[in-house]
């Protein structure tokens, strides 16, 4: 399409430019500290923007407008829980992580309980993050296939290969600084898209407000409270959002290596906290922008009498490519790809760090401090392997429904158990490693039953999993202590 040559040029220029930019950081990689923690030299504001980039991703950009298109702004109730979570992480977890030289979140579990729990929690992260990230990689294909009219597989391979290339070479430093560039780009792209969407609607913003208010599209809060089956099956109520969002974000930002690795990359504890708290303001603005875009698209389709594309996650990329003017659509698509690549690069680096630091080095009887060029080379190849794994999962993810809710639901299943056991680590002194492992197993079992045997909404998964893990471990520890005392008295 000749009229699309400028758009394709912008997209190709972005893909080539960000890849070259990321590779430039290869020369700064001399050790695992450089490769996995960026040498702890990145400023707090860059880490903050990197946290935002990891937390939003393509799922936010294409999934959030689809949610608002089909309902209202109720998802923001979850975001309010994210603020409470950040405060809790600053109080409970960051001080623990900044004691000594840590490379992964799961080293804290070995310090408190023992090596078995470190391996167990790290394995949980590896499985969960790879599954959730596979959904995000598939989400990339929804955008690229709209633009290039290619199949899902070709789209996934294209973006993954480019992202893997600069992550393989540049490590965490490349991840953080490409995140900064990419986040600025996709926020600018979203704002630019919003302006041109309004131009497509006769009457502009006043028409959006008039039509959307009548339909209840601007509703945020649902204070429905009645502890019944219906209450727990409703995904976006104030209580589910506040508690679910709080527990979910406490788990992701306090126990998930994807985010914790960024906190460990800060220069000191103060900058870790500052980066985390500052990121919430940007997150709130971002979710608000993309939800409002969804409402505006709903008004556009209503007024024009058009049928929205299916699956609904194609809604936003389809609009920006087919309805926005040339150049603007190219910038908007490049912005979506920016979010995709920033999150994927972070996932690759965090998966590699957990694999090398939590499994490979202990297996070889080596430490991070003794690592050198050989371990740096191994880390790069582990990054490549994880890239191939994510490709495979992304192909399977095509059958998993809404990409945003699928990604959140997958992450929510094990995160409750992780949060529960980390809470045991920082809040208790007498719970043993066996009790903590038993608590995690119980938490997994209960949440799997909740997921596949009930209609309880995903926003409650982390709450339930964390509570079951925490209290079952305490009960197990109490029974074990009583049994040991009885046995001692009998002998």
Q: How would the global form be characterised?
A: globular
| SSE string | HHHHHHHHHHHHHHHHHHH
Residue ranges: pLDDT <50 for 5 or more in a row? none
Number of helices: 19
Strand content: under 5%
SS-derived structural category? mainly alpha
Task: Give a brief outline of the structure.
By secondary structure, this protein is an all-alpha fold. It is 78% helix and 0% strand.
Report on the architecture of this protein.
- There is one protein chain.
- The mean pLDDT is 83.
- This protein has one domain (2-404): Sodium/glucose cotransporter.
- Helix content is 78%, strand content 0%.
- It has helices at 5-23, 32-37, 44-70, 76-92, 94-97, 107-112, 115-148, 152-200, 204-214, 229-233, 238-255, 257-264, 269-304, 315-322, 328-364, 373-396, 403-427, 433-453, 461-490.
- The protein has 491 residues and is mainly alpha-helical.
- The longest helix is centred in the middle third of the chain and has 49 residues, at 152-200.
């Amino acid at each position: 399409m000749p009229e699309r040559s400028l758009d394709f040029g912008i997209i190709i220029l972005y893909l080539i430019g960000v890849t070259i930019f990321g590779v430039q950081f290869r020369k700064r990689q001399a050790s695992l500290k450089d490769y996995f923690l960026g040498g702890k030299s990145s400023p707090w504001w860059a880490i903050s923007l990197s946290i935002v980039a990891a937390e939003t991703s393509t799922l936010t950009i294409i999934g959030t407008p689809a949610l608002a298109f089909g309902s209202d702004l109720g998802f923001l109730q979850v975001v309010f829980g994210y603020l409470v979570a950040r405060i809790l992480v600053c109080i409970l977890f960051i001080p623990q992580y900044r004691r000594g030289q840590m490379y992964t979140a799961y080293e804290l579990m070995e310090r408190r309980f023992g090596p078995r729990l470190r391996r167990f929690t790290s394995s949980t992260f590896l499985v969960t993050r790879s599954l959730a990230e596979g959904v995000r990689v598939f989400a990339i294909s929804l955008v690229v296939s709209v633009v290039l009219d290619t199949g899902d597989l070709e789209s996934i391979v294209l973006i993954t290969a480019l992202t893997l290339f600069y992550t393989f070479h540049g490590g965490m430093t490349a991840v953080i600084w490409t995140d900064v560039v990419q986040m600025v780009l996709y926020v600018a792209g979203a704002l630019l898209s919003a302006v041109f969407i309004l131009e497509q609607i006769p009457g502009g913003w006043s028409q959006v407000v008039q039509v959307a208010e009548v339909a209840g599209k601007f509703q945020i809060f649902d204070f429905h409270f009645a502890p019944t089956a219906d209450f727990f099956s409703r995904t976006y109520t104030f209580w589910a959002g506040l508690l679910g969002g709080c527990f979910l974000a406490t788990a992701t930002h306090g126990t998930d290596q994807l985010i914790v690795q960024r906190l460990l990359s800060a220069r000191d504890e103060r900058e870790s906290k500052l980066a985390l708290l500052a990121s919430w303001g940007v997150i709130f603005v971002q979710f608000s922008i993309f939800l409002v875009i969804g409402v505006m698209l709903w008004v556009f389709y209503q007024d024009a009498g058009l049928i929205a594309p299916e699956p609904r996650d194609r809604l936003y990329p389809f609009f920006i490519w087919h309805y926005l003017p040339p150049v603007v659509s190219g910038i908007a698509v490049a912005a979506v790809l920016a979010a995709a690549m920033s999150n994927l690069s972070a996932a690759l680096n965090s998966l590699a760090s957990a694999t090398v630091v939590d499994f490979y080095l202990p297996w070889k009887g080596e430490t991070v401090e003794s690592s050198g060029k050989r371990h740096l080379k191994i880390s790069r190849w582990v990054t490549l392997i994880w890239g191939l794994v994510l490709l495979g999962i992304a192909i399977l993810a095509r059958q998993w429904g809404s990409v945003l809710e699928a990604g959140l639901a997958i992450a929510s299943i094990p995160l409750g158990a992780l949060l529960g056991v980390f809470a045991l680590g920082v809040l208790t002194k007498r719970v043993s490693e066996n009790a903590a492992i038993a608590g995690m197993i119980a938490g997994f079992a209960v949440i799997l039953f909740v997921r596949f045997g009930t209609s309880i909404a995903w926003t409650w998964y982390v709450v339930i999993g964390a509570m079951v893990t925490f209290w079952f471990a305490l009960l197990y520890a109490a029974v074990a202590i009583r049994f040991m005392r009885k046995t001692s008295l009998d002998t």
